[in-house]
DNA sequence: GTTAATGCAAACGGTTTGCAGGGGT
DNA sequence: ACCCCTGCAAACCGTTTGCATTAAC
């Protein structure tokens, strides 16, 4: 019984976590917000708002796409995730807040996280001071992923 | 007279250049294409299609915005310029084909070119091979430009 | 009970497209 | 003369917004 209790608590961990965040921010913890939160935490990729909406169809068949947009934007403002307005196309969302960069497969459009702490900590070029003060750097690597390299000839 | 002839030839240099490009590509050299080309070569910033359209209003009051879009896309395909689908917002166009990166001022939205050959030629992190083959790298630096640093307090 | 969040639908802004007429070759 | 390119208008797609209803507090 103690064991089941533990499991219950564990599976409610995300609920408690989000509840705390919402309380601090003074916003309501709604069913939709919780499910979007869980979906984002579970996501191993970089989903668009539409993708999250699609994935929630089974659990929340009546959820509206604009609610997903609104919620993801709220989460971005709260610092729960990052709005990624990357190269072209739609806006993506990334629940991974660790410092990292992105690889884009030119063919299949897949996006992979790239960690490169040496680069993050390296100094910027000389002339940069004359431009301004850099607060963040984000690197985009473009090429062909392993899978596309194996499959295709282009 | 010889002098005027030289000047004439000189000022037609862009015309000749574009004419050659169009001939090779098998497309027509139209008035609109020439003016958009000249505007892009003259541009020291990273104009949007709308900006180019605006700048051409005096010279070509009847040019349509979609012609600018079509022409810039054509130029991008011909390699005359680069379509920059950068962080959020609209698509920008860059006639500077030298390898370079971009700095974004978070406040005034200004974009500056950043040259960093040492970085361009440096090797990528170890694990990158397991992801795929990198063909290009583009760095985005975000921060406050000199002007905004001086003006503001944020 | 009060207030904020949701769902719906319609607006929005940047970009693209279908079409007929006009200009370059 | 031929056909591509242009201008016009309307479609398009991702995203945002106004509003009445619903649910969280």
From TrEMBL, chains A, B:
CDD domains: Fur_like. Zn(2+) binds at residues 105, 108, 145, 148. Keywords: Metal-binding, Zinc. GO terms for molecular function: DNA-binding transcription factor activity; transcription cis-regulatory region binding; zinc ion binding. Pfam families: FUR (PF01475). The keyword Metal-binding applies. InterPro entries: FUR. Binds 1 zinc ion per subunit. One of its GO terms (biological process) is negative regulation of DNA-templated transcription. Its cofactor is Zn(2+). This is Transcriptional repressor. It comes from Desulfomarina profundi.
